[in-house]
Amino acid sequence: MDGRKFIRSFGYACEGIVTACKEQNFLSHLVSAMIVLIAGYFTGLSRIEWIIVLLLIALMFALEMMNTAIERVVDLASPDIHPLAKQAKDIAAGAVLVFAVFSAIIGLLIFLPKWI
Ligand SMILES: Nc1ncnc2c1ncn2[C@@H]1O[C@H](COP(=O)(O)OP(=O)(O)OP(=O)(O)O)[C@@H](O)[C@H]1O
Predict the structure, then answer these.
(1) Is the per-residue pLDDT at 1 higher than 80?
(2) Please, which of 5, 43, 67, 99 could form a disulfide with 92 given CB 3.0 to 4.6 Å?
């Protein structure tokens, strides 16, 4: 890949991040991530625990952005009500929920033993 094309693609990816940042759900994840990072700082996590926490936060943001992208594509492809459009949006939202629940469980497994 030539340098200019790479920089252009990088710019488009940054535009995507800025667009996603304006989403309400993304902002809630941002607040949750800040709380987890502050809690991690004061709890005193080990290196491996930080790696797991950072990985979960990054994956949560990436998954939320994929969910938003799917919503946009569905709205474009199916502006009218359609059962498949509903399934696509609900499954994408379900994927975020599954990951959020498991992240919360992993977070509790990391933090709780240090607090009690
Ligand atoms: N074209 C459609 N056909 C059928 N059902 C739809 C359609 N669009 C949305 N829905 C249903 O409405 C729900 C909410 O859709 P909406 O587009 O408002 O998503 P959202 O999760 O509120 O996203 P956001 O508000 O972030 O855009 C979807 O999960 C789906 O069940």
Answers:
(1) no
(2) 67
Pocket test for ligand 1, best of 68, 86, 97 (most atoms within 8 A of CB): 86
Q: All domains of the chain, ordered by start, with CATH? A: 24-115 (1.10.287.3610)
ipTM of this complex: 0.89
Residue in 38, 18, 21, 39 with CA at minimum distance from that of residue 29: 21
**Euclidean distance between CA atoms 20 and 106, whole angstroms:** 25
Q: Do 94 and 49 meet the contact criterion of CB atoms below 8 Å apart? A: no
Q: What mean pLDDT comes out for the span 83-107?
A: 97
**Distances, alpha carbon 47 to alpha carbons 51, 93, 106, 114, in Å:** 6, 31, 16, 15
Q: What is the pTM of this model?
A: 0.90
Does the CB atom of residue 26 touch ligand 1 within 6 A? no
Split at pLDDT 50, 70, 90, the class of 53 is very high
Give CA 5 to chain center in angstroms: 27
